[in-house]
Structure formats: structure tokens, C-alpha cells
């Protein structure tokens, strides 16, 4: 498992997903394409730092920071 | 069903314009009903395909996949798995949209596995150029083993193509797009051997979903093929990955996207609308606009409705032969119906705003903006939708809490929503405020308007406070799921908004109308019949007063005496001891009790009581009669203390049977509606008691 997860991204950054904790990630998110191999981009952060608005696999979706911390990303793919 | 009717199921992800397609195909030929036993809207419509063929189109709830996460989504699976259902489709129409084709196709590949003739609609084709998207339709048709209609429901392009494809549904392939069972060959082979006559994908759905399935012995499958929850979820994940692989490979050769063309207008809009200062300012500005429309703009049509109904009532009294039937009509039914019709402007305005906010994509931003704040009170950002719609009516509001994933957050939302000032409280507030608050201005604002606003704010804070307490009390362990799709901003389509407003308003009027009509008839009967004293009223009054009275005074005395000795009067007298400490007399008591079914009945009941009790045929409004009413000591019945006590009682009490019924349905137990009833009404009684005793 990577030490980096999607909640660590800065606004505008994107990275490749390498793993997800399937006990913590709702199926709905997986169905939207939140899967290993796909890219995830942080588009917007809500005023109080939570929730986070991502673009995953071309799906625009907002999730809570905690959920985002179970989406593991490849550190050297962060752009 | 005639042989020339084709049954069509319209399926698709939320936010792909599925409802617009449905509206374009069926126009006004729509019907909204309920699926048996659950409160999910069932929308069906008829579409004329050609001279001899019609299509019966059923608009299924939006779903991301065939893995059901909610009752709405369950409906889709249950219909598609049950060949014996009368609505089982001849052809499935999967609606997708150009910009999210990749994600939308997941559901499509699942439907294809069910071996139902399936055609693909790709919507919003008008955005392709702007977004730099190109599609090779013939190649895509080949890869997906289907026929495609590239349409724009917004511009009304390509609807005929859908009709044509529906007409020729028999030529559609029933073959699956990919072999999803390869994710675990051994497991699926065993499954295939055990049930050779069943479709493999169906079996898989039955194992993974909690759906009613008639044809199969559920237990048998479950005993032999169930695996641990995690293992199943892993397999589902594998299945999803497999499908996405197929979709990605397919789109690689059929779709071209020129990324440089994608405008950043959307993200600029997001930067403003979810800004930490402007975001909230804009949201509160919109809320103010909504309230302005409800209280100010809708008062014009409401006044018109009000005067029309009292004129109509007086007209029937004058022009129909006098008798029981005329009384029932002019004192019971017409004021009763008027009491409902008067809500239409407010309800319509509210649904108009909610519908526009949802269609434009703005509502998701509000959810995004509010989530962190709402979470402190045990609510979700998604609770904002029920809380706003609760200002119209708690029933649709509680139903809209359904898409809150976390059960605890959803339950708290359901429990506190009835505190929000719904439009049924408005007429009660309106008449009471005009009776007890003087028509003065304070710092340029109308004092009456300020009182109304105070009542709204108070209700909101009590709701939020209750949520905070419930959050501390309820010991429920739930995962904090929260997934909100953020659709692109769009200009709402007039047709969709108009149909939505029409449908919701109609449902409210017919739903509440039935109860109010029934109650006003019962009340009229109870008010115009009574004990022996009631029938001998004239004699008794004549004996009591030896001095001759003027004719008018005599009539008034008789009528007042009659009302007190009618069945309704006797009932009121019985409950008087309970309500006396709150400052209510028996007439108000009757109104309070009868409005237990629905708050708005309060005004109707007083209207009925005061018109039964009056002799004159002039159109003295109910308000005037109430203002003039005095008790035996000559004090006004509707004084300040009583008025405030009543306002507080109606703000908090659970006076709505329909809400209790919907809470029972949504929580699947009587426990929660009963807790709601006892807590809310108990709280209301105590608050009203304290208010009256300190103010009197």
C-alpha cells in the first residue's frame, strides 16, 4: 500500500490510483470508476477543507476527506 | 394490452437527461403512481410510434449500476429480473450522455447481460462540438452489439430515431457485450451447473443483491454460493474493473476527445459558487428569493382564490334552494376545498425553485458547501434538500432524504424535518398573526412579517438543536459514506421544470384534498346535529328569556346555544380541561383536535364552526367573526396570550397523519413515528403552556 492517498492532493493536482480499500470505499464510487489504474484529480476543496471534489475517470464527484484517505495513489505520478 | 403496444423500459444513470427523453417521448401522456408497498414514484407514459403502434414507456429510477444501493434502485433490478411482471419490457432503452459516456456504459453492459433487447441512446449530442468529442457510431454499434440513437433531448433532435429503433426492437441483438464471468471461472462454472436453466448474470445478481426474486429458491442459492461479504465485494469490484476494461478498449477506437476544446467556464463557475464567502452569500441570497416568492409574490393569487371561494360559497347559499344539501355545500365542502386550493401558489413556487436548482446542477454545490457544517449536527450535506423542501411539505421532503447514504444521518434528517415550517402551517400562522399582532411597522418592516420570520427561524433552530441532541443520543454505528455527483451546470429546460411543478402540485392537492374534504364533511355533520337540547334550542331560549328579545338577538342566542349542544360542541367541552391551561376554549379545542390529521384543517374547522354558528348571509370573513368572539366574561377569545400559545403549539406539534405514515414507511417501523409524535406534541404542549401562563 502506498503512503500517499487522494486526500493529500492539492487543488489542481492529479495522480494515478494504485489501490483502494474496498471495505471503506462505497460501491457507488467504484462504479463511477474509482479503480486502480485510473486517474484522480482534485478539482475543488469545500470552504472548511471538507468534502473534496474530484474528477475520477471523467466522473465529477464530491466525497468526504476520510473516504478520500482510502484511495491510495502513486506518489511519483502526482502532477 | 393491445398486440400493437410495445413495452419499453427507460434506464439510465442520474443526470443524463433521462427524464427529458421521457418527457419528449410522451409529452403530457404521463401517469405517476407508486410501486406496491414502497413510496417510489412509478412514472409511465404512452408514446405514439406510428398509426398502429404505441409504446408504453416506464421511466425507471436513475441508477449507476445493477448493484442496488437504495430502494429506488431495487425497483430497476426487480423489474428486469422478473419476466412475469406485467411491465417486463420488450425492449430496454439505456440513456447515456456524451460527456460521461464511459461511466454511463457500465450500466449498459450489465443490462446487456440480461439478454433483453437493448438499445442505446446517447444524449446531449449538441455539446459534442463544444467539448471536442467525436464518435464513430457504426463502429460503436458493432462493438456494443446494439443500435444507437444519437440525440439531443434539449434541442429535440433524434427523438424520431428512438421511436424507429423501438419499433424495430426485434432486430436488436440479445447477446452480451463481454464475458464478465471470466473474473472467477471456477465459481461461475459451478453456478452454471447447479442452475442450468437460469441466466448466469441473474443468479449473480440474486447472490449479491437483496432483491425479491420469485422464480428461484433464494435459500438454495444462498446456502451453496454465498461467500463472505468482503469476498463478494471483491468479486463485484473485479466485475466492475472487467467491464471498464472492455469499455475503455471500446471507446479508445470509437471516441476522440480534443481536450483543448473543453472550456473552463464550468470550473470558473465552481470557483465562485463554492467560494468560502461568495458561495454562502449566493446560497443565502437564493434562499431569500425563495422566501420572498412564497410570502410576497404568492399572496396576490392567494387573495384572489380566497375572495373567489367566499363569493362562491355565498352565491350557492343565495341561489340554491335552502336545505341540508345546500348547507353542506356552502358551509362544509366549498370552504374545505378553498382551504386547499389556496396553497397552490406557494407550493408551486417552492417546487419551481427546487426543480430549477436541481436541474441546473446547483443543488449539488449547496450539498458540497454545507456538508461540513451539517455534519456537526449529525446531518449530511444532503440533508439540506429535505430541509429546504420541508418548507413546502414534509412528505416529499422526507422522501428526498432517501439518497443520504449514511443511515444515522438519514434517520436524524427524517426525524427533524417535520419541525421545519411547512406550507400547511402558513394559513394557521396567517390568521393568528393578523388577529393578535397589530398592523404596525418596526424599523420599516411590517411587524406581522417579522413575527412570521421569527417563527420560521425558531422552527429551524429547534430542528437543528434536536438534530444535535439526537446525534448525541442515538448509538448507531454507520460508515460515513457520502458520494455526491457534481453534474455540469446547465440551463434548466422549461418543459422539465413545468412538468415537475405540475406533477408535484397535483399530488399535493389531491393527497391533502381528500383528507380535508372528508374532515370538513364530518365536521359539518357534527356541527349541525346534536342532542335533544340541540333540537329544542328555540324553546329553551324562549323559556330562559322572559323579556322579549329582538329577532336578531334571539337568532344569535339560538345559534350559539345550538353550536354548544351539537355533537361537536359536546366533544369540545369534554376536552376543555386539557386545553384550558393553554388558553383555548372548546371551539379552538375542536380545531386543534380535528387538525391532528393535517394542520391546515385548523382554519377550515374554525371556518366551518363559525359559519355554522352564524345566521347572517353577509360575507363577514372568518377572521372578523373570530376577532369578535368573546367568552362569558366579555373577554376576547383570541387575545394575545392565547394567540402566542397557539402559534407555538402549531410550530412544534406533530399535527400531520400523512407525515407519520411516510416516516413509518421510510424507517420501516412504528417506533420512529411514535417517538416523533410523543416528543413533538409533548414539547409543543409544554411550550404553549409556559407561554400562555406567563403572558396572560
UniProtKB/TrEMBL annotation, chain B:
Keywords: Cell membrane, GTP-binding, Ion transport, Iron, Iron transport, Membrane, Nucleotide-binding, Transmembrane, Transmembrane helix, Transport. It is a multi-pass membrane protein. It is found in: Cell inner membrane; Cell membrane. PROSITE patterns: G_FEOB. It holds the Pfam family FeoB_N. This is Ferrous iron transport protein B. SUPFAM superfamilies: P-loop containing nucleoside triphosphate hydrolases (SSF52540). Residues 5-172 form the FeoB-type G domain. It comes from Flavobacterium difficile. Probable transporter of a GTP-driven Fe(2+) uptake system. Belongs to the TRAFAC class TrmE-Era-EngA-EngB-Septin-like GTPase superfamily. FeoB GTPase (TC 9.A.8) family. The chain crosses the membrane at residues 277-295, 333-357, 377-399, 411-437, 449-470, 507-526, 637-662, 674-692.
